Structure formats: C-alpha cells, structure tokens
Amino acid sequence: MWLTLAIISVALLVCCLKYVAKHVATIGSNPFHRDTREPLKPMVHNRKEKNKVLKQGFLASKVPDNLDAVVIGSGIGGLGLAVLLAKVGKKVLVLEQHDRAGGCCHTFTEKGFEFDVGIHYVGDLQDHKPFRCMLDQMTDGQLQWEPLENPFDHVVIGPPEKRRRYPIYSGRTRFPEELKKCFPGEEAAIDEYMRLVTKTGRGIWFMALLKYLPAFLAELLVRSGVVKYLSPFYKMANRSLTQVVNELTENEDLRAVFSYIFGTYGNMPKEASFAMHSLLVMHYLNGAWYPKGGASEIAYHMIPIIEKAGGAVLVRAPVNRILFNHAREACGVSVMKGQEEVHIHAPIVISNAGIFNTYQTLLPKELQAVPAIQRQLSMMKHGAGGLSIFVGLDGTKEELGLKADNYWIFQESNLDQLVMKYRDSSREESSKNIPLLFVASPSAKDPTWEERSPGSKSTLSLVSFANYDWFEEWKDDKVTNRASDYKDLKRAFIETALQVVLEVFPKITKDKVEYIDAGTPVTNTHYIGAPKGEIYGADHGMERFTPELSANMRPQTAFKNLYLTGQDVFVCGFAGALAGALVCGSAILRRNLHEDAIALAKKTKFVHTKHKGV
To answer: Within its chain, how far is the Cα of 404 from the centroid?
Structure first.
C-alpha cells in the first residue's frame, strides 16, 4: 500500500512540476530579464523633496489614460506588484487611502523625531541571493541596506531582580554554537531544533507550487494527500510551536528562546504553526538588515519606476468599491473625492487591501455572497491587533547605550500562559501586565540618522499586541482627538512599557524622554486600513497553513480580472508580502517570477564572480 501511494505521489508531483515548467515559466514578459541596477545616486534627505514622490495627492486629472491595471493599497505587496508590471511596460495606478505611500513601510515625524511604523529588520539580504537580487531590481539598485549588530536579537526573560539575557547570533553555525554556550547540556536539543527548522523552512517552495498550479491540479494534489507526504513544510504545519519545542527540552528558558520570534507573526506558541515559525528563523539565520535612510526609502525608490512606465502612485485616494460589468468582471474602482465618486476604469484590478477589506467592503453585496468568496472567508480569521509605542529621546546612541539590535523582553518563560492571561483579562488589568515587548532603536540602526537629524536625538520603537475590542468603542472618534478615557487607557499601556525600557536600558532615564505616544489597534485601522487593528493581516495560526487553504488562497479570485496581492496571499511581513506580489505577478504575466528572480540572481553572481576573478 505504502509503495503504491509513494509511486502515485511522485507521479502526481512530477506531472505538476512538468506543467509548471512548460506552461508557466516561458509565456509572458519577464521583469527580471536583465540587470537594471544603476550607479548609486546621492541620497535625498530633504523631507520636502521626498514628499514630492511619497505624497502625491489624488485628483481625477492626475489619473493616467489607458491604464493597464489599478492597485488598491500602496503597502509593499501593492507597490511591489506595480513595479513588476511597470518593468514589462504596464501602465499602473496605485491608490492609497493614507496621506503618504508605503503602507507599513511609511514613516512619520513628530516633534522633530522620525519614526518607522513597520520595518524593524529584514533578513535574507546577502549579496546575490534571490531576495536581495529581487529588491535591487525593484529599486534599480538605489535602496541600500545596513547590517545589524551580531548578536542582532537579545531575548530577555524574567522580572528585574532575576533577569536572564540570551544573545541571538546570525550564522548557520554560530547561531546554534552560541545557544549551546548559554545552555550547556542541551546540545542535542539545539541540534535537533536546527535540523527541524532547516528542513521545514526549506519546504516553503511547495506552498508556492500550490498557488502557481491551476486550481484543479492544486486541488488534486491536496485531495490525494500527496502534499503532507512530500512536503516537510506541510508535514510540520499542523504541529504547534509549543508541541515541538516541549518535545525537545524540559528547560523552560530554552523553550522560550526557541519560540521568542513568535512576535513577528502574532500567535502565541501553542497556536503557532511550527512551519511558519521555521520560515522566520530561516529568514534571519544569515543576518538582519535595515534600510539606510529609514523605511520610507523603499517606496521612494519604487515609485519612480512605476511613473517611468506611465503609471502613478496617488495618496488620499480611498477606494470605496470595486466596479464590475454585467458579466461580473472587474473593470475598475470608485474613489471618494470629498462627497463625490470618481470612477477609474482598468482591465485589471488588484487589491492589496487584505482579504477582509476586499471581500467584505469593496465587493458589491450581491457578489460577497458568491460561494467561492464565502468559502475563502470561512478559512481565514483576523490576526492579532498591534500596539506600537514611539519614543523620542534626548541623547546620542552612545550616551543612551543604544545599538543596531533588537530586544525581545518577556515577563517570564511560560509564554503561552502569559499571553493567554493578557489576552483574556480586562483592558485595565492587561495595561499593567504586558507579557511581551519588542524594543529597537531605528536611529541607531540607520547610519544616515545623524546626517538627517542633526543634534543629539534618538528614537525607540516598542511593539506588542492588544485586543481590538479593548479600544473598539473609540473607533469612530476623531483620530487626533479621541475621548479622554481612551487617552487614559493608552497612557496606562505606555507607562507600563516605558518602565520595562527604563529597567532594561539603564542609560535611559525618564528625563531623557522628549516625546512618547502610542498607536493602538484603532490607530492601525485608521492609518493602514487594518479592519481589526491587525499588523500582520489575516491570522497566522496553524489553520492558516493547511494545504487546503494554501491551494485556495491564491491571487486569482472568483471574478475575472480581479486579483489579490500581499501578505494574505502568501505569508506576513515584508518578505511575505513581496512573495505575495510575485505570486500575483506570475498569475497576471503567466510566468514563474520566482524562477525568473532566481535565474537573474545566479547570472549576476556569475558576472560578479567572473569580474572579481579578473
């Protein structure tokens, strides 16, 4: 029986791979057909000059004629896709409801301090690797990256009187070696953890395969049961992070260190898929980087490529609905300009607004009821609400003891219990007991900071989670002037988080704090259009990583000419949203853009190596 199953499985997989090779890889235009990097131009630090690119307000007169596509949302999933299409000559319009482009890659300034909202560090950016090559091409080589310190992360566990600190180093050998120094006697557990993470993470290609294949072939693979037998990723997808690490060791602190990065996708360890966790560990295994000049550099260098092809990126352009013709084919969008609707027509409509906004808000009511739409919605749920605290400090990084690294601070090592208690308690009680706090200094990571912000100033970004329903009653208040009880609740969270920072960073004192404020889940709803304040899109628990959901959540929708892009299509985060853009671009251009990016990476590496040899 097992032999028969194995033969059938291999035969099915070979047929699917042959289909991809024959029918996907060679059809449409290739945005990665040549190296488009240009010599570095001087960085622009003048905010007014940058805003001419990032803050182009919507007017009907600014909409280009004869559009090839319109994209809803200027987060990296939307901008990235628009760049891919622009690189093959498509005229694309990107519409953003906020007053600046970039989505979670945008920055804002308060009291002279510039803050990032979503880019804290990015992995897998070694020279000539596919991900780095792809980003270089999508910014014509103008986006520069600065490596973080090594160790790049620090896990801090316990109350002030007995805090334990564990440095996390990058490097495929150094990462486990340094862990073994911290946990003598746990060498076997650490080696097995590394083996499982590596094997599982490398199996992510199967998720891409399920999205590239025609729906009937993907469904055949899923129903046959082949996926779970042939893919290490899906074999481990239904195992929780807690299950796996608890089988490896009895050491509570090591369990917490194995699990610490769950904060980058928002699920407590017992609800998190070990497969998703493995992706994140693998993503940072070779190091972490930060964009020189801050996160706004990403959109700043992408937008000109879209414009060069005749397209545009316009802000203050809230799309209120997608337009359809009588055949139920998407044919454009409606933008609210004041009290009037402006209709924009295009043969392709792509939504980077997330599955819930797209299906529950932007579709006409009668189309929301379509069974295929309801099936997809039933398979997804909202992710955790995000809490971000922005701190402006008086002092240089040296004076304040800040480096280009990150701190993950936990009350104790029993992570599941801590998060459950926090999530299930009243908002007043939880505001005094934040179980997890991510702390980083954007100003210390950016080598251009002192040039861009003269004077002894520094910034901190603090990130945690908060229930949307704790703040929901104030969602309709004016964002800059919500009720006093909302401000009091927000202040309680801020004070708790700040106390942790003062304890962990002894050189930072309260009198050094010149500015501090927080963004709650309802803040996220206003600025980035997150319906429940989520910062990672749809939930990334174990249910998200079933083969059935992977095969069904694809860029093609139930309606002709309507596509989805971004993190809800693939996985969360900067790299995940870009992967969603590549999958969507592949569906539209009818070729495998992942393979195209890999091919160009190999070519540029060969040319570089040859040139070096000469």
So the answer is: 20
Query: What CATH number labels 31-145+292-380+553-613?
Result: 3.50.50.60
CA atoms of 176 and 190, how far apart (whole Å) = 6
3-state secondary structure of 128: coil
Contacts of 176-185 with CB under 8 Å at 24 or more apart are 178/151, 179/254, 179/257, 182/257, 183/251, 183/253, 183/254, 183/257
**Dist CA 330 CA 364 (whole Å):** 11
Q: Which residues pair with 341 in a beta bridge?
A: 336
Q: Judging by beta carbons within 10 Å of its beta carbon (0-12, 13-18, 19+), is residue 40 exposed, middle or buried? A: exposed
Q: What is the pTM of this model?
A: 0.93
Q: pLDDT value at position 605?
A: 78
Both tokens assigned to 584: 């969507």
Determine the Cα–Cα distance for residues 81 and 4; give it in Å rounded to an integer. Answer: 42
Domain ranges for the chain, please list them. Answer: 31-145+292-380+553-613, 149-286+382-528
Task: Return the structure tokens found at 491.
Answer: 């202040």
Are the C-beta atoms of 311 and 346 separated by less than 8 Å?
no
Burial, 491: exposed, middle or buried (Cβ in 10 Å; 0-12, 13-18, 19+)? middle
In this prediction, the residues of the chain whose per-residue pLDDT falls under 70 are 1-28, 606-614
At residue 281, the pLDDT reads 97
Burial class (CB in 10 A: 0-12, 13-18, 19+), 528: buried
**What sections of 353-483 are H helices per DSSP?**
355-357, 365-368, 371-379, 397-400, 415-424, 427-430, 442-445, 449-452
Q: Which amino acid is at 414?
A: N
Beta-sheet pairing, 513-519 with 340-345: unpaired
Distance CA 401, CA 395 (A): 10
Residue 315 φ then ψ, to 5°: -105, 175
Q: Distance between CA atoms of 82 and 302, rounded to whole angstroms?
A: 9
Q: What pLDDT shows up at residue 230?
A: 87
Q: What does the pLDDT read at residue 13?
A: 52
149-286+382-528 CATH: 3.90.660
**CA dist., res. 380 & res. 357, Å (int):** 13
Distance of CA 492 to the CA centre of its chain: 28
Give the whole-angstrom CA distance, residue 200 versus residue 287: 19
* Cis status, amide bond into 151, omega within 30 of 0: yes
DSSP 248: H
Triad 436, 437, 438: Cα angle to 5°:
125
